[in-house]
């Protein structure tokens, strides 16, 4: 099953300055305003490598990486190790901690059933990451994956190995990040052995994983490096870790010709119970009640201080609509919305969704509501989060959820450790 190994991470030296000013979020959630802010933080912020700009950004990133290594800004660890990473954060007024291990994981095609995806990907993002890897031969950010461990053996090992003072500890204003380095061969061997019978489920980083597979194949075809880049950098966390938080991603409808709220609701009445509710402040509570009771439900907001709660009457409607899909896929809230409403009632087909012609996304409920109120969107569908068990079951069935079905929070920070793929341990 999964092959896990230690590696000599490329890390910032003291010469680079304060680690808190050198890191940034993953490339795919950074706005232009944030990009400028990270550039101003430090001349060595990882944003210059992770999300380069300019006329020839990829070549510039490759040259800059070599420059920083030659100048002692970045240095490879002398011994192979594993890196324990913890994030402490607040969500829904509660404090959480999620802890995992950063390591190298052997690349496996999805069809082998060792490393499993759960979401569809976009080709544009994969092309961008591929070009960056061609010039740098480096993973700057880790793929976030989950594993099943009913006895929580690995988590207990990680807790025992992270009792002392962390190598890094800092806050980015929202999340506190901690990192411990494990060099002990016995501890490393035990952790790696834990994964010999495990599958890994990609939580976040599908584009990066598919790109790593493509890049490995390209290297083999081109004979670019003598040691094939058969491993990528991952952070592995227990699927039942109490600190694992998944946020929903809400759907925004815009630019749809002839959109009409009453026609939309009339098209839903046969398959959904519809309750008109005053006061948008009640949306979160009502959705939470539906989530707790296992109902397939979402809020439809078309403006003003009122909205409609849509609850699927009979899951058998999804069996008829998606007979070739597994029960896990048919039972997803996002599958219900996309199949029975977006496609059937509004006529937004899968190609339209993929190109985001009439559909866009946001994690922020207030932003979704505001978008409708400002006239930027015609309506918003406000969702409950996908359950981690649903993610597991869809992946295990060899299927993928629609894009933007999950949002694991918080994102893993970029820049604490990096993986040079042409240097294998």
TrEMBL record:
It comes from the Bacteria. InterPro entries: UCP033563 (IPR008323). Pfam families: DUF1015 (PF06245). This is DUF1015 family protein. It comes from Caproicibacterium lactatifermentans. The lineage of its organism: Bacteria, Bacillati, Bacillota, Clostridia, Eubacteriales.
